[in-house]
Amino acid sequence: MDIELFNAGLRLAIPILIAALGELVVERSGIINISIEGMMLIGAFFSFWGVYATGVPWLGLLIGVIAAVLMALLFGVFTISLPCDQIIVGTAINLLALGLTGSLFRYFFGFKTTAQLPQISDFFFESLFWFLPLLLFIFINRTYPGLALKAAGEVPRAVETMGRSVRRIRFAAILFGGVCAGLAGAYLSVVHANTFVEGMTGGRGFIALAIVIFGRWHPFGLLAASLFFGCTLALQYKIQALDIKVPYQVVRMLPFALTLLVLALFGQKRGGAPKALGIPYEK
Question: Which position among 109, 149, 170, 272 has the lowest Cβ density within 10 Å, counted as fewest Cβ atoms?
């Protein structure tokens, strides 16, 4: 493989994997969160705004993560406490995030598309990319809280008989997913692009959802799948740079056509999926 293509694919895979690992934990608890896209967008904007307003990179990242966690909290209230349909709530949050970030961006920055930000090293995010799958594998399979998380997505009533709260486990998983989505969005705006553009997540949240399925709900499977999708995105840009005579629309749709293909091939095969996934729990 072209080393430049791999390096570019790695950089593009980082936010996808971080978001997908957060979704993995959420789905292991039995919840489907399709609002990753919106949470990433919230994290991207508020991290950008936080770094721009404070001039302190890590404080800006923290602001973005907190904003994404608040959005995750909103998702948890509607899907667990009320409970409402998880798909409808997720779709509503995606639309809310798109409108909110677009309006706030125009309010604070007008129609400027760039702003000078302090440079942030991507070492922290690269470390997350390689080590977070291992840490989650150990947590899910080798610790008592991780086994309780798996049980909440497999046989939630058995968790209650052990004196654990399924709702608390699922709430904690959703908040962790919000942290990961916020970090993924922050990487896009203040590390990778060093700017914010309306709708800049560009469907990466939905690709992260597909990766969870493609990776068979396994941290290392997600690592491999994210590298595959990242290299596909990088190939898209390389084709454009080489000025190959391929219609622009065909090149742009390549990652999303691949996402649909993955869902079509693997979406019906639920091997590895939690048995109670998407099923609201009533005590």
Answer: 272
Above pLDDT 70, what percent of the chain? Answer: 94
Give the global pTM.
0.93
Please, which pLDDT band fits residue 105 given cuts at 50, 70 and 90? very high
- The pLDDT of residue 1: 55
Query: Does residue 243 carry a pLDDT above 90?
Result: no
23 vs 34: CA distance, rounded Å: 9
Taking the C-alpha atoms of residue 191 and residue 200, their distance in angstroms, rounded to an integer, is 13
214 CB burial (10 A radius; 0-12, 13-18, 19+): buried
Around Cβ 155, how many Cβ atoms within 10 Å? Answer: 15
**Residues 143-188 pLDDT 10s:** 999 999 999 999 999 998 888 999 999 999 999 999 999 999 999 9
